[in-house]
Structure formats: structure tokens, C-alpha cells
Amino acid sequence: MKIIDGGVTAAKGFVATCTAAGIKYKDRKDMALIYSEVPCKTAGTYTTNIVKAAPVLWDKELTDHSPYTQAVVINAGIANACTGKEGFQYCEETATEASESLNIPVNSVLVASTGVIGKQLPMDKIKAGVKVMAQKLGQTIEDGHAAAKAIMTTDTLPKEAAVEVIIGGRCVTIGGMCKGSGMIHPNMCTMLSFITTDIAISKELLQEALSEDVKDTYNMISVDGDTSTNDTVLLMANGLAGNAEITSKNEDYNQFKKALNYINTCLSKKIAGDGEGATALFEVQVIGAESKEQAVVLSKSVITSSLTKAAIFGHDANWGRILCAMGYSGAQFDPEKVDLYFESKAGKLQIIENGVALNYSEEEATKILSETEVSAIADIKMGDAKATAWGCDLTYDYVKINADYRS
């Protein structure tokens, strides 16, 4: 596997663009379009929030029942959530506009929205934006990067990843872009992710690969514990790499899954590290677990602990908060067997052994916790299972950003 520059335009046959439609923001691009030159097998995973935005309902219908898709229209600023029948109708109107502009079927156009909940989309601006974008699609890295910037809301930077891998003797490329900074606690936040690949693979295996991988990537991140109404991950495969179509779980399928996992892990960590107001990516590894499920519960409990997140912001090795968060997680373990370490590029330091604090240097611990990427490793000594979760610190700016987000 080779890591390369790029995002959604990295794979063969995929183009993208963006425009400033003026939906909410007055000084930046706020719409993006991804288009494949040929029809795509498409998989999707969506929010588990009972309150689902109209685009989620539209896209799920397409990924479940449409024979193929070919385009995605994305807007930032208004989520089109809690908008009733009118909101769903606006999804169809957006898809119809793209259908006419790109000369493709309406049921091949996916839509996605992010932003304020409860407001209706300004359809005159949406339709005008679609028309403009249909005329300026491009396949360069810069085109993909511009699209990644256009879907941001409170994000501070665009998020992209791309890799190449040899499958069936052919070079297969997978690229992706995502957005997410607040309302992040996926149970597939507000989190949108779009992955494009030129691999030839059956729709059934494409969906299975995505559904399985989401469990270890997007579902292992949290910024604030709020599961969004709009969470969506879309994976489009157009087959232009020319490999023999993957129809069984063979070595080619395993290679694809490894590359897909890299993309999803990379994008997930970018979301967690760019949490609203965050100054650090906080990674929690639970090792020595009896089962994967136990490790998942424990690691996610720590990254969602507000007290632990605040301690990371303060560069404070307050290990009691971590042990406490593990203790109320619901998972069973022996606290008197836990070893805990802090690690960053500044070094690694054991903090507790068998549930008791060691005579460690607070100064060294603070140095380790002052980096922009910080890890806590908890060994519970019960088995060989493990899990990793990602979050961020909790800062004053998180409250400032969310206190007046709507206004």
C-alpha cells in the first residue's frame, strides 16, 4: 500500500468541484459536487439517531435499492434535518437538478447536508449552485481539495486521504474526504465522509467491507458525546481500475479492506483531532482485554469523559479520572491489575502499576501531555483483545463555539 496525495479525485474517473452558493456563509464556498464518469456500486452507513435528516433518508433509500449511483451533491451551513416532508422533497429537487445538469438518472444522485438543524434549504441557491458546479468539474488534486474545504462548518481544516494498492495485478486507488468537528459521537456526528475508489467489486461485498470497518474507525471517535442527525459515510466504486471483479472474500478482498481501513482510520483521526476548540488528539488504547467488546466499551468511556478531556487540555496526568471512567463504563475488570501509560512523541511514561500510582515525574508527564497527539494505554491483563478510540481535549473554546452556533 502506498500513501499518496489527494482525496476524492485520486481514483480513476472521479471528478469534483465546489461553489459559493451563499446558503449560510457569505465569504466562502459552501457546496461541493463529486461525480463519477461511469456508474458506481455504492455502499452507505448512517446515523443511528432516531431523528434522521432528510438527506440520510434519501441516501439510504438509494444505497439500499438503486442499482447504481454516480454523483453526490453536498451543502454546508444548513443540515436539512427536522424539516419534514418539505425537506425530503428538497432532496429530490436537488437530485433532479443534478440529474438534468449531468444527464444521469435522478436515483443515481446522492445528497448530503451539514449545518444548522431545523432550517429549510434555500432551493433557488441550491439549484443555481448545482448548475454552476456541473460545468466546472475537474480531476486534479486541487479540485478535490477545494471540495473538501467547501463542506466544512466549524472545521478548522479540510480532511483528505488517499492510497494506492495492487489488487489483481492492477493499481487500485482509494481516496476520501470528510468533515466533522462538533456533534461527533457516531454510532453508525455532525460527520460526513465520502470515499471514492476505482476497484471492481460486488455491491454486497462493498457494503459488508464498509459496515465492518466503520465499527473500528468512525464509531471509535467522539468529540462531545452527541450523535448527529446527519452522520453519513458513502463509498463509491466505479470499477475503472480494471481488476477482476471481487465477488468472494479472497486475498484481493482482504487487501481492499486493509486499504479502506487506512483511509477510514486516517479520516476518523482527523475528525477527532479537529474537534471544536481542541488543541490535541487524544487516543486511548485498551490492551490485554478479555474480548474486543470489552476493550471497545472501556476505551470509548475514557475518551468521552469530560473530566479526562479537561485534564488532557491542562496537560495534567490526572490518571484517577481515567480509571474512574473505565469503572463506570459497564465493562467488568479488576482495577487492581491495571497498568496505565501516557505516550506522545515526547516519550512514554508508566503512571500506575496494578492500579497504584508509581513514583513518576509530574514534570515529565506534563511534557508528554503537552504534545498535539497524546495517547493513554491501559493494560487490564485479562486476555489478548484490544481496541483504540480517538477523541480530543475539552477547552474553553468548545463552549464559545457552541454557545452561539445557530446565530
Automatic annotation (TrEMBL):
HAMAP family membership: ArgJ
E.C. number: 2.3.1.35, 2.3.1.1
Name of the protein this chain belongs to: Arginine biosynthesis bifunctional protein ArgJ
Group of enzyme by EC: transferase
A matching Pfam family: ArgJ
InterPro entries for the chain: Arg_biosynth_ArgJ, ArgJ-like_dom_sf, ArgJ_beta_C
Native source species: Lachnotalea glycerini
Binding residues annotated for substrate, in chain numbering: 153, 179, 190, 276, 402, 407
Catalytic activity of the protein: L-glutamate + acetyl-CoA = N-acetyl-L-glutamate + CoA + H(+); N(2)-acetyl-L-ornithine + L-glutamate = N-acetyl-L-glutamate + L-ornithine
Coiled-coil positions: none
Family affiliation: Belongs to the ArgJ family.
Localization annotation: Cytoplasm
GO terms under biological process: L-arginine biosynthetic process; ornithine biosynthetic process
Pathway: Amino-acid biosynthesis; L-arginine biosynthesis; L-ornithine and N-acetyl-L-glutamate from L-glutamate and N(2)-acetyl-L-ornithine (cyclic): step 1/1; Amino-acid biosynthesis; L-arginine biosynthesis; N(2)-acetyl-L-ornithine from L-glutamate: step 1/4
Keyword Transferase: yes
Domain of life: Bacteria
Alphabetized UniProt keyword annotations: Acyltransferase, Amino-acid biosynthesis, Arginine biosynthesis, Autocatalytic cleavage, Cytoplasm, Multifunctional enzyme, Transferase
Primary location group: cytoplasm
GO MF, any single term: L-glutamate N-acetyltransferase activity, acting on acetyl-L-ornithine as donor
Function summary: Catalyzes two activities which are involved in the cyclic version of arginine biosynthesis: the synthesis of N-acetylglutamate from glutamate and acetyl-CoA as the acetyl donor, and of ornithine by transacetylation between N(2)-acetylornithine and glutamate.
GO cellular component assignments: cytoplasm
Recorded name of the encoding gene: argJ
Keyword check for Mitochondrion: no
